[in-house]
Write the structure tokens for this entry.
Amino acid sequence: MNQSNQGQQTSEGRHEDDAALADFLASLVDYTPTIPDELVEHYLGKSGFQCPDVRLIRLVAVATQKFIADVATDALQHCKARQSAVVKDKRDKQQKDKRLILTMDDLSKSLREYGVNVKHQEYFADSPSAGLDPASREE
Amino acid sequence: MKSKRNRPPPALPPPPPSTASSESDYAFTLTYTAVAQICSSTGFTASESPALRILTEIATRYLRSIAKSAAESANSANRTESNLTDITFSVEALCSVTGFPGASEVTGSFLNSGAVTELAKFTEHSEEIPFAKPLPRKIFSIGSEKSGKVLGNVGSNSNSEYIGGERKKHIPKWLPAMPVIAKEEEKGREKGKEIWGFCGKAKEIEIQREKKGEENNDRGERKGIELALKREKVRFKIGSAGGSGGLLGGGVCRRGGIGKRVLCENWSFDDKNHHQNIGTK
């Protein structure tokens, strides 16, 4: 609705934009974001944000949800691409075709596109002998 | 083929980090669940625990940075409450990393902001996934209302301890638990109008909760709203000297102040006569 009116005159277009925005805000009253309102309020309030309007709170929730969904979708694409690249190892492919797992590698790749640099440890050694050979560990 | 799948799955959405000891842990756990839901809605079947933790952390920071920039822009415009403009600008600022339609237009108004339009599309086209479990209202916003509940049930003896432990230290003990907000809330509910701060958002779910029949809690809260500590009546007598001098200074009192009446006791006769003389003259 919004885009169809872009070619029209400015005042009309602005009016339409206004109406579209009002519609969107009104639709937020019935929309339930995945991130609950209380949680958003909590975090917003912690950062000094005050707003009496539920719709704006939900707008923020939707924005966050969209961001996370975008990141997750990108990570999913990375995951799929990585899986399709490894065709040689048949066993690996068959196993992973069924399940898509959000891994740190995919996540850090997708987050890099959003300006977030994630550095993570390759692994944590839970005991001093964790990285040693199994043979030497048993001794 | 099947036998290969006997391996246990690498990581199903793991249980959220043990017990929520503090409020921030609790908030983190809730966000964790929400983020896991979002991830599963995009098509993931499972997730590594650290990846999900990082994503949760990023979601939290995203929320906070929206709030921070919106609050800052509201403050710079001499407002305390953020409005749609502030949020639009902060969302645009955060989206500017990846870009959004219309970002290059300098003169575009916030009404047709590309970022917000994308949000609108997102709500239209994406599936609506409510949070896994309905949350009790006011878990965060009005913590002391909970204390009202506790006070109502347990009794007023635990009052001081509870208040002393839970409330902020600068609030005197004798103040009841957040009465102003709760009362405003009730008023606002009656009027059906916009109210301040957190209470406004509490309205709808408050009503739902009442429908569910949690009247006991409400009663408890209302108990908590009223003054918990009974205090003795205090009476003041204003200066016995003034009382004794009342007869003498009766005439003086009407013209002068109370303090004068007490002080002028010695020469009030003269004073009285003087004034009477003036009066008669």
